[in-house]
Amino acid sequence: MRNIRMSKLLWSVVFLLSASYGGVSASNKWEKYYNDSIKGCQSIDALIYLQKSGIEPQGSLIVGVIDSGIDTSSIDLKDALWINSAEKLDGKDNDKNGYVDDLNGWNFLGTSDGTFNMKSAGTEEYRQFKRLYPKYKSGITSSSDSLEYDYYLKMKKKAGIGGYMQFFSLAKQKHQTYLKIDSVLNTFSNIDRDTITVGSLYSLPVSDISWKQNFEVIAVDVMKAGSSALWRDMFKSEEDEFCLMKTRIDGIEHAKDKRLLMGDKLDDPSDRFYGNTHLMVDGYDHGMLVAGEIAGQGIVDSQMTGIYPAAKLMIIRAIPDGDEYDKDVASSIRYAVDNGAKVINMSFGKYTSPTPDMVNDAIAYAQKKDVLIIQAAGNSGWNIDSLAYFPSGKNKKGLPFSNLIRVGASGKSGQRLKISNEGITKVDIFAPGAEITSVAPDNTYQTVKGTSIAAPVVSAVAAMLRHYFPKLKASEVKDILIRSASPAGLPCKSRGIVNALNAVKLAAIYTK
Hints:
Elements: H1 2-18, H2 24-27, H3 43-52, E1 62-67, E2 105-107, E3 120-122, H4 124-136, H5 146-159, H6 161-185, H7 198-202, H8 211-217, H9 219-225, H10 231-254, H11 285-295, E4 312-317, E5 321-322, H12 326-338, E6 343-346, H13 356-368, E7 372-376, E8 404-410, E9 429-432, E10 436-440, E11 444-448, H14 451-468, H15 474-483, E12 486-487, E13 496-497, H16 500-511
Parallel strand pairs: 1-4, 1-6, 2-4, 3-5, 6-7, 7-8, 8-9
Antiparallel strand pairs: 10-11, 12-13
């Protein structure tokens, strides 16, 4: 009965969307189509083909969405959520998987008591610079590790912190000038400090020869504020700005990484049972867009279904604003694998990784358990064949994993999106990633671009294949997706764009 109900759901989606095939722009879901002018993934035709061929989906198909979380009350997503049927919301680990009350997934960016959930993390380069700053802030010594010091300098440069620290040094000099001017002003008992303007201040009868030189130091600020501006306001504005900069500089050495609040050992991948159940944390917009592109239900707008709405979404919160932590990515992959996901979407990546083996070991674990991982190629517009990009997706022999697909973003006419990374050896396939409309907070929709929204297109097509052809291995699904891509001369292994219709046809041959 489950398969019959699921087939009816898919066919209703096909009917609603194929009815407007000629007016793709009206649906804002061009990525589902493929014709002379629109180079989408042809997912509607794929579902029609499967229905006409009498091929039915088998069981249920879970997609692990490792991202920033979602609003679990979203009308378009709540019915697509994976439900851990072996778990009850009673404060106990009913299914003995190590995670209490994980009904729809897990949050690896929160304290166990739920009082703190991490939102922002900065770049990995900044975190590495910050870690080594206390040791090397005064330079290298005879007892220092020269390789580590070189790494410190590299991270300092990549983080762009050197320029900021130079700017702060100049700001300190300027701040002293402000204090000097204000101290002189306070010697005039007949002047109201709260009402005097910058222009009037300049004209005060001060015998000190350096008085007017002070105004040369703050000339840019004076020009911005204007001579009629109140000195009181200008002084406070500069003081607030300087205090903020000072707090940031002091924080490099003294502020602890808030990720440490989770209570786990960051360097121990086996210490995986940390976090909480909170999936609705500010910043979940990104996760909702990704989830909606895979399996949005189209409740608010029937034309706004995801590529494969029959998939069930396991929500795993591990990606803050900034670069992800290797430990959380590794923990998330293992969680998804152990709890039944057959496809994992990872719409993230970075250029520095302190513990890349931790993540690669988790990918290897997923490969052993026959789970396919889809990763975004990044939005720097670079050729990453000659760059380090993480997760590297390579096993201990330096060979690409057979269960990981890296995705670039293409536009409506099949061209590479300018912001999309590329690479013949490191990017496997492209997918629609321009003007993609998906689920957003407050039961609305948002149109975005980039590889983060292209990756879930591939994840959804992969979910379709694994749902209808469950005997296919993860490595076979990867091979099928690459071999069946629509030719477009794109800078990736497949040279093309993911095509669901071609993929299901090839999958049918594989199973025979």
